[in-house]
């Protein structure tokens, strides 16, 4: 029998989770797991991210000690980002989250379709019962 691990919410970790698990951070950190990448390579890999959002996300990750920034003295100047040892320590948990996402993707999509269908039915009922 597997050990049960109880996860207790601790308010003091909320800011950390907010930083690590925000909209773009998980994807950026996952991209950097394999190798350092330049800013534009990261941007090209992330469909829909603006330059401002990417810059802010990378600064936040750097501030939290997860990402290192290195200026490459070429013309024009290039910036390369890589994971720190602390950032690399997230590779295992992110791999587990990625596997979980792949394994449950169709179940979640089916749940979304069922929810949306039910919501439309409920909206139709409300329209017919009003007035």
Describe the structure.
By secondary structure, the protein is mainly alpha-helical. Helix content is 61%, strand content 11%. Strands 1-3-2 form a 3-stranded antiparallel beta sheet. The longest helix has 39 residues, at 91-129. It starts with 13 loop residues before the first helix and ends with a helix.
Short description:
Helix content is 61%, strand content 11%. The protein is mainly α and 131 residues long.
Span of the ends, CA to CA = 58 Å
Counted by DSSP, the helix tally is 6
CATH architecture: Orthogonal Bundle
CATH class: Mainly Alpha
CATH homologous superfamily designation: Winged helix-like DNA-binding domain superfamily/Winged helix DNA-binding domain
Strand count, sense and barrel status of the largest sheet are: 3 strands, antiparallel
Low-confidence segments, ≥5 residues, pLDDT <50? Answer: none
Number of E-state strands: 3
**Could you please say which CATH topology applies here?**
Arc Repressor Mutant, subunit A
Structural class: mainly alpha
Element-level helix/strand string:
HHEHHEEHH
Assign an overall shape. Answer: extended
Radius of gyration (CA) equals 20 Å
Domain module count: 1
């Amino acid at each position: 029998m597997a050990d049960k691990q109880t996860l207790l919410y601790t308010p003091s970790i909320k800011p950390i989770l907010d930083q690590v698990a925000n909209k773009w951070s998980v994807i950026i950190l996952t991209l950097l797991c394999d190798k350092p990448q330049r800013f534009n390579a990261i941007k090209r890999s992330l469909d829909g991210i603006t330059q401002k959002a990417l810059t802010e996300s990378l600064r936040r990750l750097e501030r939290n000690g997860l990402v290192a920034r290195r200026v490459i003295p070429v013309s024009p100047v290039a910036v390369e980002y890589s994971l720190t040892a602390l950032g690399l320590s997230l590779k295992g948990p992110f791999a587990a989250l990625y596997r979980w996402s792949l394994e449950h993707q169709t179940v979640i999509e089916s749940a979304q379709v069922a929810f949306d269908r039910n919501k439309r039915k409920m909206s139709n009922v409300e329209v017919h019962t009003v007035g």
